[in-house]
Amino acid sequence: MGSYIFHTLSRSIYYNRARPKNLKYRKKMPYSWYFTSSKNSKISNFTIKKLPKSIGIIIRPYDLKYENKNIKKIINQTKNKSLISLVAGITYKAPNTDGVHIPRWMYYKPKKTKIVSISFHGLKDTRKCLNLRANLVFVSPIFKTSSHVCSKGIGVVKLGLMSRSIKVPVIALGGINDKNIKYLRSLPIYGCAGIDVFDKNVKK
User: What's the confidence (pLDDT) of residue 34?
Assistant: First the structure.
């Protein structure tokens, strides 16, 4: 139920905003995004089977070899379901995907990539966003997360200020769930992304 509420409220955020002009792509850009687990692709593989077609996927093979059969299976799964998918942290265009996601530690954009998204952790990343001509920006962490236990997160007020200064559509990420997502509805953002909110609410 949590992922359903998350997806529904993400849609209400999207519908309150005009479609970004720089998203010139044949598919409708998702307002909800699922980040796969970087350590357990089996969980992500099961979650994707249950996702609706309107959700985008960021595939993160950081701690796994790209040749890993589960990663290949995830990519093929997103293709079969016609999901928009971006692969993070690789320096070449992965087959059957729609583009790449550039994490904090990466500054290279593969050639002939349809969609480019980047991780954004502060206004210091603005220059990187411009240099790589990003189409989407994932700002994080908004709230406290299991992966950032020592950080309280950017918070709603700072997210709003950052979103107004970034000239690229913003997707909020980090600690967002079906309870706190309601606080993001009045902000100038394009949508929301999550990990646990999808993994924890899919029946196995």
Answer: 93
